[in-house]
Structure formats: structure tokens, C-alpha cells
Amino acid sequence: MIKKALLWRLTPQNGGPVSYLFGTMHVRDLRAFGWLDAATTRLAETEVFATEFDFSETDETALSAALRLPGGQTLDTFLKPRVWKNLDRYCRRNFGTSADTLRYHHPMTVSTILSTAFMSNESAHSLDETLWRHARTLGKTTTGVETFADQLETLRNIPFEQQIKSLTWLLKNFRRQQRRLKKMMHWYMEADIQKLYKAARKDSKGMRRILLYDRNKLMAESFAAIARERSLFCAVGAGHLAGQKGMLRLLKKAGFAIEALSLSGK
Predict the structure, then answer these.
(1) Where are the domains positioned within the chain?
(2) Phi, psi torsion values for 48, nearest 5 degrees
(3) CA angle, 146 then 150 then 153, to 5°
(4) pLDDT at residue number 119
(5) Which residues contact 29 (CB under 8 A, 6 or more apart)?
């Protein structure tokens, strides 16, 4: 059974530099920052730092276009009236504004906005961006195990009907989702990547190949290509680590020796 750990040491079995894989959460909630010291200690030992995509690649114009419905379409025309009413009620209660501010957004984007509202915003930056900024101050080479374009392509490949279905479920199950996210935060603090993987599988039902399996394969291949040549510290969402098609299993198959590290980094 896989160990409870967010930080893993990886070494090519035929010899080579020591690298690290770290599971993050894409949140600014300080409860997720418990492993930050252990992560930054190991990050300092490596040459290259990678997140899912290098934040310096962000194209704000392309991102804005990708997050909006094409052709001036509006979200309220795809949601049932009572579901739109739920969205409006939620926005007014949590953001102090009407649902009209989200009218032109993709349903997946709206789902993300609503879910992150359940978390605190105590840090100026998300955990992975905090690590990226730290790596830049240390003068590390930064890159991504995906590209920004890859992430936009993933968003475009998610079936629109599935996005509507997921958003509708969320708007009918606010409290249930809040309890789920509370559990996920607890699992993260406990470094239980197996439960986080199962949660990621459940959340991506109907989209697992696009959101998990294909991305895990791409990120593991990118990790391996870098780590065979240079020491790498790589931070990706913790839901990508465990499982039969998770990055740890894929990297083991690719010829890396894998060792779980404790919160102390040892």
C-alpha cells in the first residue's frame, strides 16, 4: 500500500541526479502550507523547478478567451431556470454580486470559482505559485511538465455537456460539496494521496481520461526527460500522484527508484 506522503525522492535506477515530486493543492488556504518548509528545503538542492505549467508562460489574453463562452453565448441559456437562480443566490451570498458577472464564463470555470470560495484566501498566492516564486528568487531554472497551451487544450477538450452537468450538480449540492472539500483538505494535511486520488477520480467522472490519465502520462514523461539529465523539483496537484495511472506508478515503470519522505523532509 502506498505511503502517506506528499514529498517523494526519485532517482534514475541506472544512476543520475536526485529529483523530487511534490503534491500540492492549487489554493491559498494556509492549511495546505504545512509541507512548505520540507518542500523548499529540497527545492533548494535541485537545478530545475517545474509546476504543471510555468507561470511565466501565462497568456492573459488567451486565458481570458478560453474562460469565456464563444460567440457571445451566455451561461443562463444552458442552465435550467432554477439552476441559474441557485447560481445567482450563491453569488449574492458569497461574492456580493449577481450571477450576471459569470454569465459569459465557461461552466467549468464557474465550478472552479464556486469551489474555491469554500477555501480561505490567507496567502497572497496559491501553494504552487508560492513555490514557483521561491524558486525564481533562488535563481532556479523554471519550466512546466505541461505547457500553458496544453492546459488550455485540456479545457477545450472537456465535453461541454459534462461541464454543464457538473456545474448543475454543484449548484444543487452546495453543502455536500463544502463537506467534501473539507474532507479533501483534511486528507491533504494527512498526506493521504490515495484518498486524494480517489476524490480526483470521482470529481472527474466522465472526464478522467482528459483531466487525469492523459495528463498524468504527459507530466510523467516530461518529468522523466528532465530528471534523467538534471536534478528536478516538480510540484503538481496531489491528486495526480497515486493510482494505477498516477505519476508515481508511471515514473517507477520509467525506471526511477521512488522513496517517500516524511514531513521533516527525511
Answers:
(1) 7-66+125-158+190-261
(2) -120, 140
(3) 160
(4) 80
(5) 119, 120, 121, 122, 123, 185
